[in-house]
Amino acid sequence: METKNRLRTLLLALALTSVSSACLAETALRNEHFHFSGFATLGLTKSGNEDLGFHRDQISVPVYDGDWSFAADSMVGLQFDFNANEKFGGGVQLVGKDRTVDSFENSVGWAFLRYRINPDWTVRAGRLRFDLFMLSEYLDVGFAYLWARPPSEFYTLGTFDSYDGADLTWSTLVGEGTLRTKIFAGSSKTNASSQGNIVDIELNDIIGTTITWESEHWQLRFSASDNKLGEKGDYFLGTEPLAGYLQLLTPLWPEATSIIDRLYVSDPHIRYYALGAAYFNNPWQIQTELSFFDSEVDLYSSQLNGYLSVGYRINDFTPYVMVASAQSQDDRVLVPDAPVFDTNPVLTGQLAAIQQASQTAYDGVRVDQKSLTAGVRWALGYNLALKMQWDHAWIGANSAALWDVRTLPAQDEEINTFSINLNCIF
Questions:
Q1: How far is residue 379 from each of residues 314, 384, 425, measured CA to CA in Å?
Q2: How far apart are CA 358 and CA 340, in angstroms?
Q3: 47 near 418, Cβ under 8 Å?
Q4: What pLDDT is stored for residue 355 in this prediction?
Q5: Number of Cα atoms under 13 Å in the Cβ half of residue 136
Q6: Candidate from 80-84, 130-134, 170-174 with smallest mean pLDDT
Q7: Hey, which of 274, 328, 354, 360 has its CA 20 to 30 A from 246?
Q8: Is residue 274 classed as helix, strand or coil in its secondary structure?
């Protein structure tokens, strides 16, 4: 019922936004000091099966059983920017969409103050977008990109799309383009849905850099960051109760100690590296990104992810295709068999259940997925676009971390996702 109420509210907001967007474009509060703007997506998505639910990212409400749903992609965003003078300003962005955990804090995409030291140097502080991806600044603004949504294999793992901290940017002209270098630091926390449970996730002691060069037709990007997923001495996300059960069972099952050791976080560092390139020269739109998660966390495997997209505009229509991949780099780890007590079948059953829960915890963070996407973007106006998209995903056995999971499949799966999105800005 709660989900239905949230969806009803969201759809009402979207309907009001669509009707009034044209008027707002004319009457928006805009002068040299203030600028009000917004964006919205009305999305209809069909995806999932009985075990795996499709979600746009790991904080979104999933779609199961091949059902149609407005919840996966529909959202509305409002943005307010102000400039007190040439040096001092700021911005706030609020995004309303169906999340697994709804709160005002989760709705704040960014809220920062900015000080321009001189034309080359700018410092910002507050809630900021992670500037690690080519779509970082407009992840939720569907009108700004070609597809129905950013590719899952590259962007779903980025559950954290903002952080609380500060950044410092230096910009200068290089050749026919602009070189921009940014360093940033801070922390972030969010919630994610995992096998029916809501898990709190924190990134601490974040430090990173982004180097971007942009010209009229090209964009090249490199980014890197060092992050602490939780703290040393914690158990991996959501596994503390399981570790407690295993601790009690060590007198009967000595091998449980090795399972606990793997759930324990002895080094929380995860380092992230990404390369990106884009070429936009009408009628061509070509974009690719490649990233590597270098994980020191025992339970969280290192990952290699990437995609390549090609679009070709024909009048108001831009058909496109995309291939994407996300792969865990470490071999699957098997949990040792639980002991069998012939004289006590109840205890044997309980131990087997704990063994299975441990294996699920190991497998729940693994990724082995490839996908093929085809679609078309129809430019209905200067601020309105309609997209129709088909995705076909090949998902490896015991490796479905990009999906919301009811039961983790022990065999390979293939799932089709169909999307119809109406995007606007105002």
A1: 11, 6, 12
A2: 17
A3: yes
A4: 93
A5: 20
A6: 130-134
A7: 328
A8: strand
